[in-house]
Amino acid sequence: MGLFRTTFAIAGYGSLATAASWLLMTRQCTMRDIPRSDYLFNHTLYARYNPNNAPVTQDICVRQVPLKKIRPELLEGREDGRLVDAFCQGIWGGVGYAYQRRFLQKKYRGAETASQLWDRKDLSVSKYEVGTQITDHFEVVSRTPTSIIVRCGDSPRKMEVRESDGLFEMVVEVKEREGIAEFGLKSVFYNGMAIPGPDKDGKMPP
Prior knowledge:
alpha+beta, seven-stranded antiparallel sheet, 6 helices, 25% strand, disordered N terminus, membrane
């Protein structure tokens, strides 16, 4: 019983530490639903990869950062996409993605995925141009100076409509009058092969 008690204690403490870390890292963030009027739901990419308009699971995580805390060269070059590039570099090359990156690397890194981004040093400097593939799980499918959209949910080598599919959008809006930059991470997940029934309520089923 001592062994089981110790095992459960370790598992419990590990879960508690994970929850505490998540709360610490997201304490300045706001989570909310994405309104159905959002342009992402009217994007050609959404229509292409979710042709039956299947129900979705979606949200957006928003964080506001004072402009004085952002490196001047990123603000000066935001029309060239430097700020949204830095946002993506921080997401994929940062600690928040480290565990998943290592997990995917053990399963999928090999000769067939050698051209994809795997190492933290590469993820931290990439310009995330359209076509960039990340750890055999994400592919950049659209970019503007303020937005980068990646397809997610399965391997980018599967180009057809997929059962496990979705779109992430990293978007940045500089609000000069308020003295802040607003960073948003949108996530929209769906079964691209599902055919919704008459009781569809817009939510992805369990």
